[in-house]
Design brief:
Layout (H helix, E strand, L loop, with lengths): L1 H51 L20 H10 L9 H4 L4 E2 L10 E4 L5 E7 L2 E6 L3 E6 L3 H5 L1 E6 L2
Antiparallel strand pairs: 1-6, 2-3, 2-6, 3-4, 4-5
Length: about 160
């Protein structure tokens, strides 16, 4: 009888320590998650702030991401993300296959937004229903995603941060 009570007590103490230990392991993971979320937010802010410095730079199809005199849509995104440690493929179509799918309702600043079918345009979601991108006559510009042409031709989005 004594051995049975002692065994139950040891088992109870062991179980209590296991619960305490597992609870303490959860706290750092939440802190790590919060840190990674804020790091992604800081990176997206850097990408957007840097991209806005190029407002008005002319569009030229086939532009290299190794220079800043002209951009096409995917050289623009490739350059901005590379400056922030994120490697993207060269074309909009290829960029649409990296990261993870994000629904339109879940867009966050820094997400890549794609247009047409088949995909051949990419932009950066900057928040408040706006995108930063380059095309045609305006060159690097900010457009509304929630109305007009860009809203009508939206295809998908990817989160790479």
């Amino acid at each position: 009888m004594l051995n049975n009570k002692f065994g139950k007590m040891v088992a109870g103490i062991t179980l209590s320590f296991m619960i305490l230990a597992s609870g303490s392991l959860v706290i750092p993971s939440k802190a790590v998650h919060a840190a990674s979320v804020s790091a992604a937010s800081a990176t997206s802010n850097n990408i957007i702030d840097t991209g806005k410095q190029y407002l008005g730079v002319p569009y030229k199809f086939g532009s290299s991401s190794n220079q800043t005199k002209t951009f096409d849509c995917s050289s623009f995104t490739q350059r901005l993300y590379k400056l922030n440690g994120v490697q993207l493929p060269r074309t909009a179509k290829s960029q649409s296959n990296v990261g993870r799918y994000i629904s339109r309702s879940q867009l966050q600043p820094g997400d890549l937004v794609f247009f047409y079918s088949p995909i051949h345009h990419v932009a950066i979601y900057i928040g408040n229903g706006q995108i930063l991108h380059t095309y045609g006559a305006p060159g690097v510009t900010i457009s509304s995603l929630n109305s007009g042409w860009w809203s009508d031709h939206y295809t998908t989005a990817r989160r790479v941060l």
